[in-house]
Write a structure and sequence with these properties.
This protein is of the alpha+beta class. The chain has two domains: about 130 residues, Nucleic acid-binding proteins (OB fold (Dihydrolipoamide Acetyltransferase, E2P), Beta Barrel), CATH 2.40.50; about 260 residues, BirA Bifunctional Protein, domain 2 (2-Layer Sandwich). Helix content is about 30%, strand content about 25%. It contains 13 helices and 20 strands. Strands 7, 11, 12, 15, 16, 17, 18, 19 and 20 form a nine-stranded mixed beta sheet that branches. Strands 1-3-4-6-5 form a five-stranded mixed barrel. Helix 9 packs across helix 10. The radius of gyration is 28 Å and the shape is elongated. The C terminus is likely disordered.
Amino acid sequence: MTDLAHPDRLAKVEAMRAAGLDPYPPRGVQAQPIAEVQDGGGTTEEPGPLIGETVTIAGRLMGLRDFGKLIFAPVLDRTGRMQAGLQKKELTDWWPQRKHLDGGDQVAVTGELGRTQKGELTVWAREVKLLAKAVAPPPEKWHGLVDVEQRYRRRYVDLWAHEGVREVFVARSRILSLSRRFLEERGFLEVETPTLHPIFGGATARPFTTHHNALGADLFLRIAPELYLKRLIVGGLERVFEVARNFRNEGLSTRHNPEFTMLELYQAQADYRHMMELMEALVEHLAAELHGATKAEFRGETYDLKAPFARRSYAELFGEHNGCEVHDEDAVRARAAELELQVDPELGYWHLAGQVFDHTVEPHLKGPVFVTDYPVPICPLAKVHPEDPRFAERFELFIAGMEIANAFTELNDPAEQERRFAEQVASKDPETPGEVDVDYVQALEYGMPPAGGLGIGVDRLAMILTNQDSIRDVLLFPAMRPQHSHDDEPEAT
């Protein structure tokens, strides 16, 4: 046992076993969801149909208020919390076993639904069953855990000990289910593509590397599913999406986790303009379904998520916040020096320009706003804008200064794609793919129709729609340092 197990509770386990009682019985019970029981109870003025009926509830025992011959015990299940009333006169044979119970235990209570003298809905127990003994006591008050980091490490406690946490993850689940339904109603097909990639591509990031013994080959955990999904467009599926777990071997912050969820989709006969319309319609739909309105509160501000969203070009914003044109290399380098940005010169000019944009423009993008038409050198998978070949048909959606989505009019010229891949490989950026994805180029040689693609950061969108300040608060099990490490967690920025 770990040091969390309390000696008094361990002693109760042994006492139960000595008395022939199983503290961990092999079978559960057929219980009614607490929310349904509460609905069936009605009100004090208008009693519901379950008043006076026998019901069974099961869940975590949240405490015990012992008045001698009467104990009140709140029980929490996935749908809600309600009180059980344990009376000695109704539980004569069982009554000595009450001493085996503690807050945190898993229990089932069967009895008549009624009310206390003060009108509180209560299950008056005729049978109490211990389903699992909790040998680790729950925190008396959640802020009693000195290190808030323990909320993330022990999410299995956080979910029932900290008010509101469970609702966040229920809402996150709804975001995914609503998004799936939204896309399926528009003819999209959900697919699954490989997580282990022989070549990492579809985004610029540092990958996690592993080795497949049978193949004798190094493989990479995917940083994006993009190139496989576009192969399916070549294959004629035309509208596909994937809820993809992606992996990037990078730092931790309030908006970054090394594994994260992307909703990525591709549509034949579409472009980035169609993707803007789809994205803003989806966000508006999710807000309305979750909140009953299109406004969302996040970090103390109100965001109106009703379509259409504002649209601003990358070049316009860059010039507005830096006083120079993004293609004016000398001026941009001077601006970077003024900002004291430390950027490895081997990463090239466009990495530097991107850092200037990140530092000077992104914090002001309250949004929701689409930033459109990015410089071609930072868009290796996007079509060139037909009216200005210096820019590509790409947008990013920003809300509260965070990038929420990224989209392109997809490049489908195989020769141009091969040339851009080669430029990436030739660059000295250590985070770019180390070889040209020849198979993807070959797929394009068979002809990919005009298409639009969109990638949505589910975790960040969930942060905004559930008003959670950190990405850790919308991930059930965020990445953490090993517990044996005495180093501080990296600062969240």
